[in-house]
Specification:
377 residues; 6 strands; six-stranded mixed sheet; 2 domains; alpha/beta; Transposase; disordered N terminus; Nucleotidyltransferase, domain 5
Length: 377
């Protein structure tokens, strides 16, 4: 399934579907995960990805909804279960949410599937269910409402509200960075479709002015020497792998050579341009750091519930139990549980009463005839 059908990010009303991945298709070490799908008012698929079922996955989903709709509160969300950490955090944050059962989720996946899209028809079942839930919201088959906050998350409303404010602020800072680069550093937009990504931010912070990588062919050796320490420094800081950093710097160098330098940005404004780009990058990074602090606090206090098996997993487990029962009937006949030995009774009060042969006790017989009533004279 296409992860993104349109590169342009349009701020429209969007609908999100969350489907849990089949535990049988994932190794146990990876933990539980959810597949999220976002569609617009026309039902067109905008984005689909997999998120972890923890506070970090919740933060990733909120950032995606802010990027697509301008704010997480403007997006209706449908999920196939309310037992997930992400759905619990959404309810605690006051987001409109709809919960569908397994039969409805399967029906939506078939009813709202795009038969003309070969990629969508060949996508994994979890992605088809997520897209079906999102399009069910868009078509009005589901209605998202504000659900009561879970009792154990009621004290985190302020934290979630602060995180939502930071997510909106981060989006605004990313938009401001893009506009600054458009006017002062257009080669950066040509090199990086998303200049607010972690690698792009690190490279722009280290090389905030095109003159640091620009130069004539005769100075190509000097440029290469200047780029190597920058790449080594970013790798040492753990920003990304060495090949990713080198590819990002190479893309920026090529974009600078192919982008004509604007006459208004002369040598006098070089230092001002570099400082402006650095501060714009710092504003995005500040929001990221604040969001990470809140997500870390939530991760330390919110426990991820054990995955509750749905109808599909329960049916599969019953089949496995049936197979084991069949094997037990042929290979383990005659086995029975051993009752632990009880201590011997000590004293008269501890002795058991004598038992009859198993029948109910007989009623007592009268010793003689009942007394006769004397006649009345």
């Amino acid at each position: 399934m296409s992860r993104e059908e349109d590169d342009a990010v349009a701020l429209v009303r969007v609908y999100c579907g969350l489907a849990s991945a089949d535990p049988a298709d994932r190794p146990a070490s990876t933990g539980s995960a959810l597949t999220s799908a976002v569609v617009d008012d026309a039902g067109r698929l905008l984005h689909v990805c997999e998120i972890s079922d923890d506070p970090a996955g919740y933060a990733q989903l909120v950032a995606l909804l802010v990027e697509r709709s301008g704010g997480p509160s403007g997006a209706a969300i449908a999920a196939d279960s309310d037992d997930h950490t992400v759905t619990s955090l959404l309810s605690a944050a006051g987001r409109p949410l709809a919960i569908a059962d397994d039969d409805s989720v399967d029906d939506f996946a078939e009813r709202f599937a795009d038969d003309d899209s070969l990629e969508e028809m060949q996508s994994p079942p979890a992605e088809r269910r997520a897209v079906g839930l999102a399009r069910a919201l868009q078509a009005g088959a589901l209605s998202a409402v504000t659900l009561p906050a879970p009792r154990d998350l009621a004290n985190y409303k302020q934290v979630l509200a602060a995180h939502a404010a930071l997510a909106n602020g981060r989006h605004s800072a990313a938009v401001a960075l893009r506009e600054v680069l458009r006017e002062l550093y257009p080669a950066a937009l040509r090199a990086y479709p998303d200049p607010a990504g972690p690698v792009s931010l690190a490279v722009l912070d280290a090389l905030p002015e095109p003159g640091m990588l620009g130069g004539t062919v005769a100075r190509g050796r000097e440029v290469a020497v200047a780029a190597d320490p920058v790449a080594a420094h970013l790798v040492a800081e753990g920003v990304a792998r060495a090949d990713q950093i080198n590819d990002a710097i190479t893309a920026l160098r090529v974009a600078i050579s192919e982008t004509p330098r604007r006459a208004t940005v002369n040598r006098v404004l070089t230092s001002a341009v570099a400082e402006t780009v650095r501060q714009a990058v710092a504003s995005v990074r500040a929001c990221d750091a604040a969001c990470e602090a809140l997500v870390g606090a939530l991760s330390a206090r919110v426990t991820t519930p054990a995955p509750v098996p749905g109808r599909r997993a329960a049916a599969r487990r019953s089949e496995q139990v049936g197979e084991l029962a069949g094997l037990t009937g042929t290979t383990a006949t005659g086995l029975r549980t051993i009752r632990p030995a009880e201590p011997e009774p000590v004293g008269r009060r501890s002795r058991p009463e004598p038992r009859t042969g198993g029948a109910a006790p007989l009623p007592p017989r009268p010793l003689g005839p009942p007394p006769a009533v004397p006649p009345v004279c």
